[in-house]
Design brief:
The chain is of the alpha+beta class and 404 residues long. The protein folds into three domains: 76 residues, Phosphorylase Kinase, domain 1 (2-Layer Sandwich), CATH 3.30.200.20; 203 residues, Orthogonal Bundle (Transferase(Phosphotransferase), domain 1), CATH 1.10.510; 112 residues, no CATH class. 46% of the residues lie in helices and 12% in strands. It has eleven helices and ten strands. The strands form three sheets. A five-stranded antiparallel β-sheet has the order 1-2-3-5-4. Strands 6-8-9 form a three-stranded antiparallel β-sheet. A two-stranded antiparallel ribbon has the order 7-10. Helix 4 packs antiparallel against helix 5, helix 5 crosses helix 6 and helix 9 packs antiparallel against helix 10. The longest helix has 32 residues. The chain is elongated, with a radius of gyration of 26 Å. The two termini are 50 Å apart.
Amino acid sequence: MTLEEESRLSFYRELTVLDEKKNIVLVQDIRNSELCVKKTLDIYSHDVYEQLASVRIEGVPAVKECVADDGKLIVVEEYVQGRSLKQVLDEQGLLNEEQAYDIAVQLADILVRLHQLEPAIVHRDIKPSNIIIEKNGHVNLIDFNAARHVNADKNEDTRMLGTVYFAAPEQFGFGQSDERTDIYGLGATINYIMTGDKPGAGIAQCRFTDILRKCLMVDARDRYQSATELREVLYIIGSQTGNRSDDSAFGTDNTEAAAASYRTVKEKITNTYRKYQNKNYNINSSWRRFLPPGFRGTNIICCIAALGWYALIILLSLSVTFTDSDTGVIMTGWEQAVYKIAIFIMLLGMTLWFGNYLNIRRKLPGMKKVNALSFILTCVYGFALCFALLMFFAIVVAIIESIL
């Protein structure tokens, strides 16, 4: 552990031990009073946790720090308030069809985001104790100790990890883990929360029984081949039957009218949000993310507007003229060219910044979440960038003038 890493970890003050056996401690960031969880892992993939620390995935606790120390990995991540799915089962028993369906859809959404990363992350230990249900019903997938990157060059796993009953056959020496491994884990978990039985004891009888059966096929080639495919099938089932109950893991609404109204609003918000998330993750996981702002989507109007804007930038950069502040004479030659280039780079840089090119804004301090603070910082960082570019070109001009 370097001195810098030790200094970063010192910002987290230990409050209480959450799980002594698993070395999990509740800590508080002394800089902003945010609650976090600190874990000391013996089994881990450093590359996976570093990747998780570099991105923000809805439904996965944000990784604040991951530091290797003496063969172990110290991880500080966001503290998610809620109950594990295992606790829910212990307290209120098996879940009904609608509750299980809602959890299945949210888990599928999370897997789509994980599997569309480059490289893709496979969780490999999906089970009730690794799923946290918040009070508002949001599902979170935690504990990436067994997670790994997909490696198409390997024929089988080098380390057998996973939990009996929820782990796919390939995790026990029968093949190589990939995205389909998590699909098996999802199917086993959803089947368990409705039946209390392991997959071999039978499949839950519900409107998506066939989906569970396909998820739990022994041969990975017979399962859904991607989380996206599974999610689409679940969406189709949901659109055909509708959400017939407002039950959640935390009880029901006793007023039928309120429940019906809530379902309508919830469906609209959820569908809109999922479309937005799917669009963003599909863009962020494909070659389109390298295109400049305005061309990353498929909206023709946005593309035409962006084309006009970039043409305007070029036109302004070429047409603007500069005069010497001392003589009032219009600059010519290299001086004029340098200033034109400066204007072009400044306008293009601001466009890339406010267009969040390659998700650059989310990588800066205070910009991890979308809120009022991040909006203010967007403007502050933007003006700072503009000022830095102007100063850079001023220094370049001064150096060239001194040489000549």
